[in-house]
Amino acid sequence: MNLFPKFEAGLPLAGFLAKHGTDAHRVRWASAAAQTSLTDEQRKLLGTFTRRTNVLVLAGAWCGDCSSQCPILDRIAEAAPPVVVRYIDRDEHADAQAALQVNGGNRVPVAVFFSEDGHEVARFGERTLARYRQLVAQLTGEGCATGFVKGADPVQQAVVQEWVDQFERIQWILRLSPRLRKLHGD
Q: For the domain with range 4-184, which CATH number is right: 3.30.450.150, 3.40.30.10, 2.102.10.10, 3.40.1190.20?
């Protein structure tokens, strides 16, 4: 399935939450966003990005994993102007949900990265390695995160870094693409 039309139909985070979230969801997401920050080093790296990167995020306003991770994506986009993030609701877009299943299940958030002209570059989600390591260590941990974020939490800081790493990987794929280098003359 070509998912780029879903990106074009997607909403910025505020619009997504206004359409699909309740007041309680928006409070939880705002709290997570307030606790989410990038380091100076991360901001400096993201500021070097030059290739437009379109990112489609399949999400649910009710989802704890989404509320803890999606604000990271918006912080990345704030620091890297060529990055454009759009959100679609998992339940409203059942065809995208089916195409983006993880291990045969409907999971969120899942990010799909596209070049400026709509070619799919990569997919990433639904949890990062740091979060999975935490859950495995707990063994009796929750099946779905609450979405409550503490900025000084070392696991959350590792999750932020893992998302930054994914965006960096995609940027270098796009920056070194022979097709895009020819298009941009660089």
A: 3.40.30.10
Residue ranges covered by each domain of the chain: 4-184
The phi-psi region of residue 118 (left if phi > 0; otherwise alpha if psi is between -120 and 50; otherwise beta) is: left
Q: Which helix (H) or strand (E) holds 89?
A: strand 83-89
Please state whether the predicted TM-score (pTM) of the whole model is above 0.85: yes
Contact 93, 58 (CB under 8 A): yes
* Structure tokens that stand for 78 in this block: 């704030």
Query: Omega of the bond prior to 109 within 30 degrees of 0, cis?
Result: yes
DSSP 151: T
Q: pLDDT (tens digit, 9 = 90+) per residue, 114-152?
A: 999 999 999 999 999 999 988 888 876 555 555 565 557
Cα gap 12→145, rounded to integer Å:
23
DSSP H helices in 59-153: 64-79, 94-99, 129-138
Which of 99, 162, 96 is closest to 127 using CA atoms? 162
